[in-house]
């Protein structure tokens, strides 16, 4: 009998096929003996060290296989967790009261509690830490770790959660969709799904109870997992995906149906991401996250190393546009060599641009490296922006620092609008810079006082919340008054329906994962600017997020409704 499970949808695609279930990891046994005497203690100590060493080697090998990709970077960082001497010593310290598998489990939870308290990026790493624990416990016990048997046919992968280590072991050529019981729209599973253009639904209660081999229809657009779909449902999905495939043939620049231009750009996080995006029909890069070099190192990358990485990205987009975001670290992405003091609330502390207050040389060196890279790539249209700007004074200060580093006349200098204060004073802030890009993820988080990684509060962090929409509109209007281009590079840009609203507000560019661009391009190409403006007014006049979505959907034409799977 056909049943429907609901969750948080990722992407606008759908797929159907038999499901395969991730085998749950083995747990430490409740009756594990506590080591007694020096000889048993030495054996247990060696068991912990050996297990963590094997996990580090496994993850490092997987990182090498995926070198140059975002997944490879994450796996390398997870391998470092396994090799952390403090982790091993904490576990060994628990051998006085626990066997080795349980000692490691207790130590893991202590680290996890600390990560959750920091929140954000570090809270996300708890899943990676647990993955290290699971693999290490399996080695200690001498059993197979949980996971997935080799895929022999295209299938829907279902799991409680998927870590980078889990993903690295999958034959992604045979994965047609992903479903997890936990997670949110920015979880690792969701990010991988967006990058690959896979339909995905996360936070699906009961997903792991579905018997292996059961046919599932996974609809990322609707946030539904249909168990044992009937022939009509399967036919509708096939027809819809055939329409979607035709969208990929359109490689024209972004524009509304009446010719109003809207740049469609890609978000990247590594040089490998840049190489992959360069081969796609995108007009450039709207968000180049540069912190990957800083977070994966125990010391600041030198100017020469930075300049080479930036040059590689810029050269891949010769003749196109690249928007570089300066270091966005601190808080949930701490740097051992920058965040030297413990803050009670790091999400509201010295993070991102605010690091100039304590370690100004980081910004100076990065801007110098960017200037050198731009000199080597004169044919690339380079824009440089600072994250976490709150005031016009900070915006002007960044402009001055950029010019002092030699960027004046070589690149456009701008800021990110992520803090409500910057949106509320947008006229003053934008009058000091040459462009702005709205990071709707953080803007929503700070506006709604809601951790964007907390799936339980997904309704509050909804991009359609009236308060968030009004701040975006206010910033866009200030951009029009000051003749300052204002783009969006948060998750909102990847939603075709929201993209129409943003353009109606006056947003000039949209940046997203490359897999999201075809659907957004299609929606724009089949909607007039006047209709987009009507949609913006309807959304801004709504009392809540549900009413806003409904009001905008009512203004869609039939062709776009079908493409968005609203029919």
Commentary on this structure:
The chain is α/β, with parallel strands linked by helices and 567 residues long. It folds into three domains: 3-24 and 147-245, Phosphohistidine domain (Glucose Oxidase, domain 1); 37-141, Enzyme I, Chain A, domain 2; 248-563, TIM Barrel (Alpha-Beta Barrel), CATH 3.20.20. The protein contains 22 helices and 16 strands. It has helices at residues 37-65, 70-83, 85-93, 100-118, 120-141, 164-168, 188-196, 231-247, 271-278, 292-295, 303-316, 360-376, 392-404, 420-424, 426-430, 440-448, 466-481, 496-505, 517-525, 529-540, 545-553, 558-563, and strands at residues 3-6, 8-10, 14-21, 155-159, 175-180, 200-202, 215-219, 224-227, 263-268, 284-289, 321-325, 381-386, 412-417, 435-438, 486-488, 509-512. The strands form two sheets. It has an eight-stranded mixed beta sheet with strand order 1-8-7-3-4-5-6-2. Strands 9-10-11-12-13-14-15-16 form an eight-stranded parallel beta barrel, surrounded by five helices. Strand 4, helix 6 (164-168) and strand 5 form a beta-alpha-beta unit. Helix 4 runs antiparallel to helix 5 (120-141). It starts with a strand and ends with a helix.
